[in-house]
Amino acid sequence: MTDDPENTVKERVVAQATSLFEVHDHVVRVIGNLDLPMGEVYDEYGIKNDDTFDFEAITRLYLYKEAAEMKQEEVTSRVKNWEYLQQLFGLDRAPTQAAFSYTKKHRFSYEFRSLLNDIAKGIRDAGRQQDHYNKDLKSPDPTPSPDEIEDTSTPLHHYVDDHAPDIISAALNDVCPAFDTGRAHNVVHEDRTVWEHQILMSLSDRAGTRSAFRTFNKFRTRALHNDTHVRAVKKLGTPHRYTLDDFSGSHRPTPYWRKVADTIQPQFSDAVENMLGRIREADEFSEPVVAAIDTVRVPVSVTPYKGEADVEPGDTKVKTKNGNLRVPKDDYPKMIKGGNDKPVGYEYATLTIVGNNDPIVLAVEPVRHNSNWELDNGMSVTWAETVNRLMQQATELVDIHLVMADRAFENREVKHVLDQYHDVNYLLPKTKRSEAMKEDLEEVESDPSLVSRVQPASFYLDENKTRYVEAESDDTVGEDGYSHDLNFMYVPAKKDDWVYTELDDVEYTVFVTNREDVLPEDAMGFCNRYSSRWDIEIEYKMIKPLLPSIASKDYRMQYFSFVFSCLLYNLWRLTGSR
């Protein structure tokens, strides 16, 4: 079968897998990136035609089956439902159970099967050394790239339809009891009926098909008129508490959207806690967790500007991003954000578990930034306050040891909040270029012995440039504005969107972290953890279609619909990985 002894082949492949587990956080990526010695084995099946599966691709699938200790029916079902697995392994289609069985019997010799079984055991053991256990090996890769999802031919509704029964059951058991509309107990339609209607809107409006609708009707108790549903959701999101600041002229009153969010968020957290309780009971969750923060904008089609027929004499005009003069609408929702070459829409920030645990949205926070059509300049909430609120919500539910975010969050106050307010490590890509950073990068590039560089620094806050942290009076700020020590890491870029600068055709990126024990030889591996942020990109691709079409400008409806869709996404990820 091979010129080398079988043990030599096994040792070479397992050694590769061990190294790959240090870079990739899932077995499917490890197997997909193995350099298999296919030139040293041969296909027992000598006939080649259009229906023949690629020998190397089917070999990788067999290794996945054995490494994850899955049954034949289970692995063929998984590769059918998750098309990006076909891409990773090089399959042009999903094999049926019969085709996979035929391949194993007629194309793999007994010696080759034995060798693959030994290699698979070695891969499994290598994964366990990196804390990847059976549940992690068996589940679909939790971090496929957005491109892999988009490139598959299977539309979103396939996934929704496939898991609709499990999602609906879990939603009714874990999510719905956490929400309380506060209506009278003698109402015609109880809260459960309201949430059944909300599930129906999410699963069959844009994300699902008639299959999901039929599945839903098996669970549904009574039909609900849309007006009743709207009134119930508005009741749930109506703030009931007021503070002295709301009636005092000495402080800026709490904006209505903030009160709505503060009313709904505790109920969202209760629902997430119910989900976490389920997976903790099954011993399928490990803490502390790695978390990722990002933002998503939900587009709306209504323009913020008046039409020519509605413009009145004396109306104030503003300059749009295109340089045109337009008249803003008087009643346009304050929470809709626009500009920066993006469509206008409601924007939200989320904090999501990433890495080895199932990806779960732990916290949701409204994003409020002023837009160019707001004549009073509106108000803007700093990223530092947004991150602090997300962390406050999330740390009530889980322990967090590392937070990652994109360049939008790389600013001084955010870093201070994460380090001093919450005592967590952070990993952020740098945004601004400086001469010092350029010199450090050039030194890395010019020294062939250096692959990466770690540059320690002390970090200070400038009281004249802080908006959220009171640098003068905050006890967490030291002398002269000292905040904490950090490390700049200069490493070769792995992804296009990581690129910071290019030196002699080598693309580099710069990350910053408050972790103290980062050595130059460890920097690349540590920064590779940033790839697990892919989860949050996929998250948004799934949540948006789960948002029902809502014409209402009422922020209670908009915010609740988003957080409820996040909960359905959580359930989809939890049920889809089991």
Concise structural overview:
The protein is of the alpha+beta class and 578 residues long.
Task: Give the tags.
578 residues, alpha+beta, ten-stranded mixed beta sheet, 20 helices, globular
Describe the structure.
The chain has 578 residues and is α+β, with helices and mostly antiparallel strands. Helix content is 44%, strand content 14%. It has helices spanning 6-21, 27-32, 55-67, 72-81, 83-89, 97-106, 110-129, 134-138, 146-151, 156-175, 191-205, 210-219, 226-237, 256-281, 383-395, 412-421, 435-446, 520-527, 534-546, 555-576; strands spanning 289-299, 318-319, 325-326, 336-339, 342-354, 361-366, 400-405, 425-429, 453-460, 482-492, 501-503, 506-513. Strands 1, 4, 5, 6, 7, 8, 9, 10, 11 and 12 form a ten-stranded mixed β-sheet that branches. Strands 2-3 form a two-stranded antiparallel sheet. A hairpin with a 5-residue loop joins strand 2 and strand 3 (325-326). The protein starts with 5 loop residues before the first helix and ends with a helix. Residues 141-151, 153-157 and 206-220 have low confidence and may be disordered.
